[in-house]
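Recall that a protein's primary structure is simply its ordered list of amino acids. Everything else, from secondary elements to tertiary packing, is in principle encoded there. The following example makes that idea concrete.
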Amino acid sequence: MDGFSQSEIQQIAGFVRKIAKAPNVEAVISEAFIILKGIADIDRVRIVYSPSPSKWTEWKADKHKIEVRPHEEWPPPEKKSVSVPFDPENNHCGFISTNNKGDKVLPSLEIIAPEVWSGLLLQSALARVQRAAVSETELVRATLRARDEERGHIARELHDDLGQSLASLKLTLKWAEDLARPHLRMETIAKQLEAARQDVGVMLDKIRDLSHTLYPRVLDTLGLVPAMKELAHQVARHSPITVECNTRGRPCSLGKDIDIALYRCCQEAINNAIRHAEASNLVIRIEFARNEVRVAVEDDGKGFDPRNLYDSNSRMMSSGFWTIRQRMADLGAAFRLSTAEGRGTVVEMMVPYSSRKIHGRKNKTTHRG
C-alpha cells in the first residue's frame, strides 16, 4: 500500500472488517463510499454488478443518498471516469468507478474493488439462501394447510355421508328385527338382525371417532378449549393413560389457523407419548396470558436423550416433533421440548396474539381411562 499513510491503512483494514459484517447490499455500497471519501476525497461512487446472467444492478452513492437502478443490458463505465473492474478477465461482471480525479483515486479503487466484489457476492449468496428458505417454508406451509383441509373434507364425508348411511341402516335393521321377533320361526333371523345392528353400531362409533380425530367439529363451533377437553376424553377412553386438561386465564378467540395448529400439535405430542413414552399420566395445560397463548403437553413417561432427536446434520429426526416445530414457526410462535432419560417429556408452545375480546373463566377437567 505504497503512498498511503498508517492512518489510511487502518481505515482500509476497518473497511474490510465492516464489509465482511455488512447486513445488506446498501451497507456494502455505503461503506465503499465512506472509505473512498475519507482517503481519496471523492464526492460520488458508481458501482455496477451482475448478480445473475443478463442482469445488472447499478448503484450511485454520494453523501446524501444511494440510488439503485436495474439494467437488462450492460451499463458501461462513464466516459472520463476512473474505473476498476471486479474481474480483470471479465469486465461485464461489474466495476467500481468515480468521476473524481486525484493521485489516490485509482489506487484506492484498486484496493477496495476486490473487497466490494466479495461483499456483493456474499450478499447475493445470502439472498439466494433466504429465497430458498422462504420457498421451503411456503412449501411446508402449503403442505400442512392442504393436509388439514383434506382431513376436514374426509371427516365431513365420513360424518355426513357414510355416518348418516350407517345410522339409517341401523334404524332399518331395528325395524326388521322388531317385525321378525313376534314370530317364533323368525326368532333366529331376529337375533341375526340384532347382531348386525350391533355391528353397525360399533362401526358407527368408530367412524365418529375417526371423523373427530381427522377434524373435530367442536373446534369450529366452540373453539380450542372445548376441543382440547374432548381430545383428552377421547384419549382417556381409548388408552390406559390418565389424561388431565387444565386451563388458566380467560379463553379468547384465537382464529381458525391458530386453533387448528395448536390442536394438531397437541395431537402429535399426545401420539408421541402414547407410542413411545410408556407414560401413565398426561397433562394438557392451556394458559391465556396477556400477550400469548401457552399450551403444554406433559407426560411422566421414560423420556429420552434430547441429543438423539437430531441426526449428524442437525436435522430433527422425529416427524411428529418436526411437524410441531414447523407449525409453530408458521405462526411466528415458539416451540420448546424438555426431556431427559427417565424424566418424562414436556412439549411447550407459545403463540403470540393481538389484544382480543376475552371471555370465559378458569376451569379444570380430569378424564380417566
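Confidence is low (pLDDT under 50) at residues 355-369. The first strand starts at residue 45 and ends at 52.
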